Amino acid sequence: MTTSLTPVLREMRWWDIDPVLELEKDLFPEDAWSRGMFWSELAHARGAEATRRYLVAESGERIVGYAGLASAGELGDVQTIAVARDHQGTGLGGRLLTELLRAATEFDCAEVMLECRIDNIRAQKLYERFGFEAIGFRRGYYQPGNVDALVMRLTDPSTSVRGTEING
């Protein structure tokens, strides 16, 4: 059952790492990121030379989603998107992705790439709605489960987010 509160999106900070890790381990038990991986990403998310954008979705005092993007030159890469089970199907994943694509536009990324578990059809459909196209596979990408990843690409992320609102 979902809550009636609309989650608020905000920048992820170091004090969010522990609740994010709890959600990460629940959603991705076989291939969850470590605390060090989140620390490393956040170290590149602030200041004039920032190359990362990480955010959380908060409902009341609870983090119910998070997402992250890395940029290098004209290429953006969706590092992660996660939504708590009781908030899946509410549009929160789309709101998080919209914010990442806005960040890609701010970073002057000409295209955005991502990897998605081959068995995560719900996520693939979300990405397709935003204009991502499948371009290949990475065999055994997700370890230790040895699950393949579908590689997807979006050209011109700025066209995918026009007229969208992150908190509406």
Q: Which value, in Å, is the CA radius of gyration?
A: 15 Å
Shape: globular
* Amount of beta strand: 25-35%
Number of strands: 7
Average pLDDT reading? 91
Poorly predicted ranges (pLDDT <50, ≥5 residues)?
163-168
Helicity range of the residues? 25-40%
Order of helices and strands: EHHEEEHEHEE
What's the number of helices? 4
Main beta sheet: strand number and arrangement? 7 strands, mixed
Query: What separation lies between the terminal Cα atoms?
Result: 20 Å
Structural class: alpha+beta
Placed side by side, the strands forming the largest sheet appear as 1-2-3-4-5-7-6
Which features would summarize this protein structure in a list?
disordered C terminus, seven-stranded mixed sheet, alpha+beta, single chain, 4 helices, 168 residues
What would your notes on this structure say?
This protein has 168 residues and is of the alpha+beta class. It contains four helices and seven strands; from the N terminus they run βααβββαβαββ. The chain has helices spanning 17-27, 35-42, 92-106, 121-129, and strands spanning 8-11, 52-59, 62-72, 75-83, 111-117, 133-142, 147-155. Strands 1-2-3-4-5-7-6 form a seven-stranded mixed sheet, sandwiched between helices. The radius of gyration is 15 Å and the shape is globular. 33% of the residues are buried.
Write a compact overview of the structure shown.
The protein has 168 residues and is of the alpha+beta class.
Secondary-structure blueprint of this entry?
Layout: E1 8-11, H1 17-27, H2 35-42, E2 52-59, E3 62-72, E4 75-83, H3 92-106, E5 111-117, H4 121-129, E6 133-142, E7 147-155
Parallel strand pairs: 4-5
Antiparallel strand pairs: 1-2, 2-3, 3-4, 5-7, 6-7
